[in-house]
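ok trying again, last paste got cut off:
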Amino acid sequence: MADTEGSEIHTGELQEAIKVEVGTQVYFTIRSPAPLEINGVPVVGVNYDSLGEDLEVGDHIIVDGGMCELVVTAKAGPDVLAGSIEQGLLLSKANLTFRWVEAARCVDPAHVEGQRGCASTEQQ
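nice, full thing came through this time. structure:
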C-alpha cells in the first residue's frame, strides 16, 4: 500500500454518508464544488489535485484504512469512477490511501524495495 501523502488526502464534505455495497459505483473528483451526482452515480470531492493523473484503471482506493475499498474502473478528466469491492461507508473528511497496480508508480521509487504494498503481487 502506498501512503501517498499520509493522512493529507481526504474526501470533502458530504451531505450524508454514502452507503456502498459491493459493485456500487462512485465518482471521485477534484472539482469544487463537486456535483452531487453524475448520471445517477454519487460524486465525492477529493483534495488531491493529481487524482486523475496519478490513478489508473485497476488501482485501489482504500477509505479510512479499510472502511471500504474501491477499484478504479474509468477516468474522465478530473473525475475517477470506481466500483466498490467491499461494502462500507464513505464519510465526510475520510482518509484516502491508494494502492497502485504497478510498483513502478509508487510515489517514491527509492522506497519501493521492501515496502509492503508497492509490489504488484500484494495480496490482501
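cool. The helical segments are 51-54. Confidence is low (pLDDT under 50) at residues 103-124.
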